[in-house]
Amino acid sequence: MSDDFKLPEECTDMREVRIGVDRTDRELMELLDRRFGYMRAAARIKTNRDVVRDEARKAEVIENARADAEKRDLPAGRIAQIWDDLVETSIAYELDEWDRLRAPK
């Protein structure tokens, strides 16, 4: 990590902004890696492939993200769209992992 990292309110030029964005992107990837680790755990734990997709849970996760974005004065509708893509990608990943774990050897 760069010693030049500053929080957004401390940035005074675009170089500092870019350093902050790049560092934040790496941190987001670490969090996504953890999130997809939970998808691997779910695939391992769930005994029935049919329960991988849970529309009620999907709606809850997206609504939680939308509400959190709204509280933070972020673009809530767009954040909800991002979360919809994230959840759909997570479901596809979990299904692939579920199949991989149970594939004949």
Instruction: Kindly identify the CATH topology.
Output: Chorismate Mutase Domain, subunit A
Percentage of residues in DSSP E strands: under 5%
Given as residue ranges, the uncertain stretches (5+ residues, pLDDT < 50) are none
* Biggest sheet statistics: none
The geometry reads as elongated
Helix content: over 70%
At the fourth level of CATH, the homologous superfamily is Chorismate mutase
Secondary-structure content class:
mainly alpha
Q: What's the average pLDDT?
A: 96
Please tally the helical runs, counting DSSP H or I stretches of 4 or more residues.
Answer: 3
CATH class: Mainly Alpha
Order of helices and strands: HHH
Number of strands: 0
Q: How many discrete domains?
A: 1
CATH architecture: Up-down Bundle
Query: Separation of termini?
Result: 42 Å
| Cα gyration radius (Å) | 18 Å
Quick overview:
The chain has 105 residues and is mainly α.
Write up what this structure looks like.
- The protein is mainly α and 105 residues long.
- It has helices at residues 14-45, 55-71, 76-102.
- It has one domain: Chorismate mutase (Chorismate Mutase Domain, subunit A, Up-down Bundle).
